[in-house]
Description:
The chain is mostly helical and 242 residues long. It has helices at 47-66, 75-94, 100-134, 143-167, 175-179, 182-203, 207-213, 217-231.
Amino acid sequence: MASATGIPESRNQNEGRGEDEPLLGRAGDASQQEDQGLQFNFVIGTAVIAQVGIWILTATIWASVFVQPLMLFSAHPLLNSAGILLTTQAILLLQPTHTPKQKKQGTNIHAVLNLTSILTLIAALVVIEYNKIAHNGAHFESPHAILGLITYILFFLQAIVGVAQYYTPGLFGSTENAKSIYKYHRMSGYVLLVLSLVTIAAATQTGFNKNILHIQLWAVVAASVIILVGVLPRIKKQKLGL
């Protein structure tokens, strides 16, 4: 639409996108353009910052594991960090979507990434439990172990609810009922990401890390802050019902 001067009103270009305003920045700063592929969502806006943080965190953990002799337990931190890496990518992918087509495509890939993440986390849980049983170790005593168990459980619940509300909305009575809890799924996803990072930080205080891996708490905290600086500003306020 043009103004009285004949100059197009750029203000109107973003109207109609009810989910286009991020927590920080202007409307459209963290939105997928209609002619862009989903792959660009991994780097739109502050996503690049989040990518730097999650890859630093993953590389720090993997490097610390591979410089030591490998054992069964080695798979636990490797699988857990891979799971959080995949979850972060799933979040970054879906955040910028706003048209029905983008949301459908993004949600399908989001689900695949998170399903893969859940499988790696299950494998990590199986490894640590088998290792504990094989060595008559204590279960769920350290802050890391307790936080880890809580995180695993919440991940599973998050995945179950997410799949059910999108792919089988009839379980909630109607599609509209299922859509009404989307915002809670999104909120809990961000809370779960923070909890995962706190759990990783707690792992640096375990005896195995202090004696074998030597992953530094400050390195995990720094990488976690970078991740959140990249992820949180891209949150769309309207998608959270704000």
